Amino acid sequence: RTAKTSRIAARVTPVAAPGGPYSLWRLVDTTDERDRQEAAFSHLQYIINYLDHAPAGFFSTQPDGQIAYVNATLAGWLGLDLAQTTDGALTLDDIVGADGAKLISRIEAAPGGVRVETFDIDLEAKTGRTVPVRIIHRADFDATGEPQPSRSLVLDRLAHDSDRESA
Length: 167
Description:
The protein is an alpha+beta fold and 167 residues long. The protein is 32% helix and 32% strand. The protein contains four helices and seven strands, in the order ββαββααβββα. It has helices spanning 31-52, 72-78, 92-105, 157-166, and strands spanning 8-15, 22-29, 57-61, 67-70, 114-124, 130-140, 150-156. The strands form two sheets. It has a five-stranded antiparallel sheet with strand order 4-3-7-6-5. The termini are far apart.
């Protein structure tokens, strides 16, 4: 059995009282709370690992076109350094090109609703290689019709076609 390290948090509150000011010190054992947070974070990393190594690409876009997330599969297809996809510098144009971005941005608003559209386009990797893909794009809208962050599944059409031919 391993020893458990306790974590104690000190909370200090000023108290106004005759003859004061005083400070009220409370020591709180946060061991269980911290353990729950670490377990939740570990589980989240586990889930992200599944998404990152799925046999399909995935990305999420902010309403302004800034890329919020790219999974490792799509980054690999495009020759992107995964570490550089999280700094906010990538835009929708960088992932799907200007023509793909125009298609995606033309989705009609659905106040309080969701639109799902499918696009067959060619992506261009940093190496110049063309990657024909099918994008299944989900766009959510708030009650006034303003776009919310979107999510897109990216399927390699060549890999899918070759799977079908071998069946």
